[in-house]
Design brief:
This protein is of the alpha+beta class. The chain is built from 11 helices and 21 strands. The structure holds guanosine-5'-triphosphate and magnesium ion. Belongs to the TRAFAC class translation factor GTPase superfamily. Classic translation factor GTPase family. IF-2 subfamily.
């Protein structure tokens, strides 16, 4: 039964009625502002506009606005591990550093154990507690996720090779950090190499308004060798200090919200996504929407290939049970039931397809330009 007019719903949602009509039309429902819709349709609309709907009774609904749901009550917040990404120019030692940090700091029992590549991993450090490292090509992951409005990185380690100095991608990384307002720690790498000139790196950074500690500024810097594993504990200490200043926290006691770090189709396991839990707890059996896909969590797997019952904020895990492969940066949201999940996903897929067919239409001009 119809419970609310489009106009009234728009009012309660604080959205434009014409935008709702447009969305309804795109969903294949040509409905005018004065017409009434049922609870299911209303909920679909409400969800799509980023709000949450509550069914007060069979004939009444209540809208919870995103500002209210967006922020967790401060009393529910618990400390969570920092999420760290490594950025820097080609060949400056990003992968070497991630490998070294992982090898150096994994607890004795795990050292030498088989570790899977899942695009992100956690390290238990002696001095800095648990730290989550994103192990994806830094720039790509960072920009892709930011374009989609999903920020996952708390701290960036900017790797600069001391023999090569500041290079185009170093400068690009600085720009990204600044735009995203993410603090960075400068790791001046390859100090074991002949011709290494860390001081020159610091000076060149000044030109980009990065004043490191050694130059009297506030950006932490550390000279390292990823190859020889020099000063890695210092780097960890600085990370821990930075993280402490940020007082990172999240509410673990709510349905999970996570961001896709990477995803692919696996021969044996189907669509697999590596996600980073932003808040809440993800559990086996949870129903979810992720971008234009949906699913039910069949397995939660940690960075050691171990099956978990649940994952908490700051943890990177693999999720199995997806209807298809989502994109990096897509947000995974746990929802109440499978019908809802499928509806939202299929609506989004339609929108994507529409966007695709209307994007870049082939004009006569560019059809023939190659011939001319
Ligand atoms: P891309 O992923 O291609 O952008 O490179 P990367 O930044 O991940 O660099 P990678 O870790 O692959 O290192 C590039 C080369 O530098 C490799 O040959 C490493 O062995 C070498 N290298 C990395 N760190 C050090 C270091 O501290 N000292 C020396 N001497 N060589 C290093
Ligand atoms: Mg690399």
């Amino acid at each position: 039964p119809e419970v609310i007019t489009v106009q009234e719903l728009a009012g309660r949602m604080a959205e434009k009625a014409s935008d709702l009509v447009k969305a309804l039309f795109n969903m294949g429902m040509p409905i005018t502002v004065n017409e009434a819709i049922d609870q299911d349709t209303a909920e679909l609309l409400v969800t799509e506009f980023g709000h949450i709907m509550k069914r007060v009774s069979d004939s009444d609904i209540d809208i919870v606005h995103d500002e209210e749901t967006e922020k967790d009550d401060p009393a529910t917040l618990k400390p969570r591990p920092p999420v760290v990404a490594v950025m820097g120019h080609v060949d400056h030692g990003k992968t070497s550093l991630l490998d070294a940090l992982r090898g150096e700091n994994v607890t004795a029992g795990e050292a030498g154990g088989i570790t899977q590549h899942i695009g992100a991993y956690q390290v238990k450090t002696k001095k800095g507690g648990v730290i989550t490292f994103l192990d994806t090509p830094g720039h790509e992951a960072f920009t892709q996720m930011r374009q989609r409005g999903a920020s996952v990185t708390d701290i960036v380690i900017l790797v600069v090779a001391a023999d090569d100095g500041l290079m185009p991608q170093t400068i690009e990384a600085i720009k990204h950090c600044r735009e995203a307002n993410v603090p960075m720690i400068v790791a001046i790498n390859k100090i074991d190499k002949e011709g290494a000139n860390p001081q020159k790196v610091r000076e060149r950074l000044l030109e980009h308004e990065i004043i490191v500690e050694a130059m009297g500024g506030e950006v932490q810097d550390v000279e390292i060798s990823a190859l020889k594993k020099t000063n890695l504990d210092q780097l960890i200490e600085k990370l821990a200090l930075q993280a402490e200043l940020m007082e990172l926290s999240a509410n673990p006691d709510r349905p999970a919200e996570a961001v896709v770090v990477e995803a692919q189709l696996d021969k044996g396991r189907g669509a697999v996504a590596t996600v980073l839990i932003k808040r809440g707890t993800l559990q086996r059996g949870d129903t979810f929407v992720v971008g234009a896909e949906s699913g039910k969590v069949r397995a939660v797997i940690d960075d050691h290939g171990k099956q978990l019952k649940k994952a908490t904020p700051g943890m990177p895990v693999e999720v199995l049970g997806l209807s298809g492969v989502p994109s990096a940066g897509d947000v995974l949201t746990v929802v109440e039931n499978e019908t809802r999940a499928r509806e939202v996903a299929s609506y989004r897929k339609e929108q994507q397809n529409k966007a695709r067919t209307t994007q870049a239409p082939v004009s006569m001009e560019n059809l023939f330009s190659s011939v001319a």
